Amino acid sequence: MTRSNFDLVLFDLVGTTVEDSGSGSSAVIECFAEIFVPHGLTLTQEEINPHRGKNKIEAIRNLLIENNLSPEMTGAMNLEFNRLLKEKIKNFYPMEGAEEVFGLLRSVGVKTAIGSGLPEDFCILLLNELGWGNGVFDYTGSSESLGAGRPDPIMITDAMQKLGVKDRDRVLKVGDTASDILEGKNAGVKTGAVLTGTQSREDLEALRPDYVLESIKDVTRIM
Fold first, then answer.
1. For residue 20, which of 12, 119, 155, 216 sits 20 to 30 Å off, Cα-Cα?
2. Helix count (H) and strand count (E) of the chain?
3. Fold of the domain spanning 27-90
4. Long-range Cβ pairs for the range 55-64 (8 Å, 24+)
5. Residue 48 three-state SS
């Protein structure tokens, strides 16, 4: 391959490049469910799922409001969510083929970026735990540090600006949630929906992503 179709690929973290089901179910969903139990609420995966991919403070606040609980509890519950995530960090591991995809993109001159709606300190901890914290990506970002959550396109535009990428037609956002796809569309870049998360093919296809990928490994067939 002499030149890739893209100058920059921005990947989501959990559900796209990182698996979080080491305990048998999604660790992120488990953490969401656990922080609501002391408040008398048992949330199902179906209730939590639509909020995946969003800034977690926003997601917690929205779930509180949806269930007629006070949004003033958001801050304390977010701290507890982060604590539980860190307890479960061993349940997170690279998706099969992820590191090979990163290496192949770099070998043809494509810049790689990774971003998440998870708390910034947990993202840093997780990337270091995976050995991805130093030099694996050209850009790392979090909605928490940038002050706006997906589907706001701030993370994509920040990556493009910092990496000197100007042609939006040559930027690809890859993620496993509706928020990821809407983020990419709001940024005016190409979008790739991967089916390795907890949201359904039907829901993701309804958003008309440019590509539907069984897993991150399929990035190699469109690059």
1. 155
2. 10, 8
3. DNA polymerase; domain 1 (1.10.150)
4. 55/117, 55/143, 55/144, 55/148, 55/149, 55/150, 56/81, 56/117, 56/118, 56/119, 56/144, 57/144, 57/149, 58/149, 59/32, 59/117, 60/32, 60/35, 63/32, 63/36
5. helix
Q: Which residue type occupies 100?
A: E
What is the SS3 assignment for 6?
coil
- Cα 176 from Cα 213, distance rounded (Å): 9
Q: Homologous superfamily of 8-21+92-221 in CATH?
A: HAD superfamily/HAD-like (3.40.50.1000)
Q: Which pTM was predicted?
A: 0.88
Amino acid residing at 3: R
| Closest residue by Cα to residue 179 from 198, 212, 151 | 151
Between 54 and 213, the higher pLDDT residue: 213
